Amino acid sequence: MGAQREVEPITLERLIKDLRALGVRKGDLLNVKVSMGSIGYVVGGAHTLIDALLEVVGPEGTIVTDSFVLVYPLPLSEKDALRVVDRHTPSYAGALANAMAYRPDAVRSSHPVQKFVAIGALAHELLDAHTPESYAYDVLRVMAQSCGRNLKIGSDDKVVGVGTTHVAIGLLGFHQRRPRAGVNYYNYGTGEVRTFERNWAGACDKGLKNFIPLYRSGGAIVSEGRVGNVEAKITDMKMTLDIELDALRKDPMFFMCADPACEGCRLAWDFSTGSRVSCRVHRWICLVRSFPRLARRGMKLLAGE
Description:
Largest sheet: 7 strands, mixed
Radius of gyration: 21 Å
Order of helices and strands: HEHHEEHEHEEHHEHEEHHEEHHH
């Protein structure tokens, strides 16, 4: 066996240097989307990345990330009804979201599900207004109108989208048929526990990549480089939103993926053109085609290869 390759640790100083080289500036308003595992071994983990971002944007800048929480089928079961969401509820969005949410200098929005968390000069201005009555992604709309930029650290496969597509879907009023879901949440204004029902549309992760060539040709990609061991890019949020609105007005199905078995794209939208039978047939075809590959893999495992 060959010698094991030593993993070079990613330090605070390295992250600061990489972020500045990428084009992060003093005073930036950043929507941060990141795959921590892709960066490499970061000494100190997500808190070190937060420290690096705050050092580069300075006290006049602001960093924002989503810290969304899970929803459950409605009506809530007895078990799910006990899961009351408050400002301390952990997020499924990853290490950065949870590290930011528990910092004393962080502000987390009071939206019951699509919570955002921010640190910096505009944190309260952005998030205090994001309440149960707000559109789920309204924070990103405000950021796009305020010269905000999206910082994506990770590949397009690992870190999906730039955030503003959900704003475009909401502004255009697209309707998606989804099972009823929601949460019980603590209302800090009244001191009551209330039930909130999900009331926004989602999007297929695979289809969001359809916009990338448009961002590039439209000049929305401000800069590209690397942070740690992974690719990174900065996009202009107003430009990506304008590009998405234009594309979706011309073709509402532009953000659909190419998978004929994807029920989320083929069936869920008012303008979807697929059928449940077609989706199931294509899913069966994919399963049948995978049999030889799975069989070969099983034979290798049995042979100890």
